[in-house]
Design a protein that fits this description.
This protein has 343 residues and is α+β, with helices and mostly antiparallel strands. The protein is 29% helix and 23% strand.
């Protein structure tokens, strides 16, 4: 079911009831984006409010556990991605020595596919199952690789472990080891395209340490003492607007043996919702006809029960646009009433 089309039809129905006016698809998409962002950010305030009620023993359990509902709504936007290294010279390649870097780009559309709202945790992978070897499968099947010199079952490769193609600078996760041929791995992405590609494998079940977030001021103080400075066992990180700095900065101890910065840092974060796009194919009787098959189409990412809130907020924007205070006030009153009822 398309929420965005239902929301648009409801909004137009309210606007046309008294011939208040009409909003174009492009204007609707702009209002829809702002409405979705407003509700998305409100999840965190509502979650905090329900948490305080729970601590004050004023919240219920089971179906009355409203905090759980907000947790599930926020989890829709949870992502887990490997961070992309950032080098002092700005290069993106990782082959030329020194290739190691303890600096990583924060999650962005260009690096991980989505911008982050908040970073929940940063993990440092330290256990190499394969430090340096090469793919020996000349005709590479989709999303697979082979190393005829190794037995991945004996090495201990498991689903979820990280394979880094150091030739192409691509990363994938292991789906499973072929039982008939334990030198063959199947991956969740097609990162090997030729025989001879150099690779390494990191474990995601052993040697995975969570980095403690510290301020830029505190990390300076910690690094001044051998007793407090971060180690691979107890790593830390600080971040700026564009870069996450992982400590210790010499985590690439084995770089001269072929290790790289790729696949070392795994980040779990909450991303921003994708911009909603109501798309149409053609005009039917002067009215745009909804076209969900368009490559630009994007539905709301919010749960279905937020549809009334989306309608109310878009009506407020539309009312301001067409200079009809009654429409804006109508949406605001409904929005306020919904918020009071939810408390």
């Amino acid at each position: 079911m398309s929420i965005i089309n239902s929301v648009r039809e409801t909004v137009l129905s309210v606007l046309n009831k008294n011939n208040y006016g009409y909003i174009t698809p492009s204007d609707f998409n702009l209002y829809a984006k702002q409405a979705q962002l407003d509700i998305f950010e409100d999840y965190f305030y509502q979650y905090n409010y329900q948490l305080m009620k729970e601590n004050a023993r004023a919240s219920g359990v089971g179906y009355a556990d409203l905090k759980k509902g907000y947790e599930e709504a926020i989890d829709i936007f949870s992502e887990q991605s490997f961070l992309v290294p950032v080098y002092a010279n700005g290069a993106s390649q990782t082959l030329a020595l020194p290739s190691a870097s303890a600096s990583y780009s924060v999650p962005t559309t260009a690096t991980t596919g989505s911008d982050y709202y908040l970073i929940n945790k940063v993990l440092l992978l330290t256990k190499y199952l394969v430090v340096q070897s090469t793919n020996t499968l000349s005709l590479v099947a989709a999303s697979s690789m082979k190393d005829s010199t190794l037995n991945f079952s004996i090495i201990g490769v498991k689903p979820g472990d990280v394979v880094v193609n150091k030739t192409t600078s691509k990363v994938a996760s292991v789906l499973f080891v072929d039982q008939a041929d334990p030198s063959l791995l199947y991956l969740d992405a097609d990162i090997f395209t030729a025989v001879g590609d150099s690779y390494c494998i990191l474990s995601l079940s052993r040697g995975v340490n969570e980095c403690e977030k510290v301020t830029n001021k505190k990390i300076t103080q910690l690094n001044m003492s051998n007793l407090t400075k971060p180690t691979e066992l107890f790593p830390a990180y600080s971040n700026s607007s564009t870069v996450i700095q992982v400590f210790p900065q010499d985590i690439q101890v084995g770089v001269n043996q072929g290790q790289t910065s790729l696949g070392r840092v795994l980040c779990q974060y909450i991303r921003y919702p994708k911009d909603p796009k109501w798309t149409y194919a053609s005009l039917v009787g002067g009215t745009p006809a909804f076209n969900p098959s368009s490559p630009l189409y994007q539905d709301f990412e919010l749960p279905l029960d937020d549809e009334p809130s989306l309608v109310n907020k878009i009506l407020q924007y539309a009312g301001m646009s067409i200079r009809e205070t009654e429409v804006a006030q109508f949406g605001q009153v409904l929005d306020t009433t919904d918020n009071q009822n939810e408390k």
